[in-house]
Amino acid sequence: MSNHRVWVRVVPFIGTMVVSAYGVAYSWNYAYEKKRLATISDLDEAYVVEFHKKVSQSTGQTEWKNKRVPRPWENQDKQS
């Protein structure tokens, strides 16, 4: 096997491993931060705002949208 064939096979494999490792590390960090923010009793509001700003920039969202669906019992209370 020539040296060229080795490089042609090894370089894409190493690149794939690096990209996969970055994706796993980013996902793990995101899940860790979301869990940590949910369990902290004394929230630092500036940190929470900064975290959500970074997430919205990385996902391409420009504004927050309320996706909450009213529950059936909430609608009945408002009509009464």
Order of H and E elements: HHH
Q: Which consecutive residue ranges, at least 5 long each, have pLDDT under 50? A: none
Oligomer: single chain
Structural Rg: 23 Å
Overall pLDDT confidence: 80
* Biggest beta-sheet profile: none
Shape by Cα distribution = elongated
What's the structural domain tally?
Answer: 1
What does this structure look like?
With 80 residues, the protein is mostly helical. It has one domain. The protein has helices at residues 3-39, 45-59, 72-79. The model has no long low-confidence stretch (mean pLDDT 80).
Any descriptors?
80 residues; mainly alpha; 3 helices; elongated; transmembrane helix
Summary of the model, kept short:
This protein has helices at residues 3-39, 45-59, 72-79.
Helices and strands, with pairings:
Layout: H1 3-39, H2 45-59, H3 72-79
